[in-house]
Write a structure and sequence with these properties.
78% of the residues lie in helices and 0% in strands. The longest helix has 44 residues. By secondary structure, the protein is an all-alpha fold. The relative contact order is 0.03.
Length: 122
């Protein structure tokens, strides 16, 4: 057996409590647990590193998607409130103006779709 050398390490209180709890649970010396952790860190194979990198990237993507879902929900809710207010405030048209209003509505809708298409193309 080789001679071991001493290493002093400073841990914050939470980390030290976790180490002591694990040492008590495993009935192992804290230095043996620390040595195993350091050895694992120093000899981590490429698959472990790759998995850790992929996991971190997936976590970031998940958080981004969560933000997008939240923002989309806000946008849809705001649009629904606007439509509800618009429908509430817009008076009905008399029967003799319906045909002209529908024609104008179709024209405006087609203009809206063209403008939307141009904007999305950018």
């Amino acid at each position: 057996m080789s001679v071991k050398q001493r290493l002093s390490v400073y841990l914050d209180a939470d980390m030290m409590a976790r180490l002591e709890k694990l040492a008590d649970k495993e009935r192992a010396a804290k230095s043996a647990i620390a040595e195993a952790a350091i050895m694992s860190f120093l000899t981590a194979d490429d698959a472990d590193r790759w998995e850790a990198a992929v996991t971190r990237r997936m976590d970031r993507l998940t958080r981004s998607i969560d933000r997008l879902e939240r923002d989309l929900e806000f946008s849809v809710e705001a649009l629904a409130l606007y439509i509800r207010a618009w429908l509430t405030a817009t008076p009905p048209l008399p029967d003799n103006a319906q045909a002209a209003a529908q024609a104008k509505g179709r024209e405006r809708y087609e203009s809206f779709i063209a403008a939307l298409g141009r904007r999305l193309a950018k």
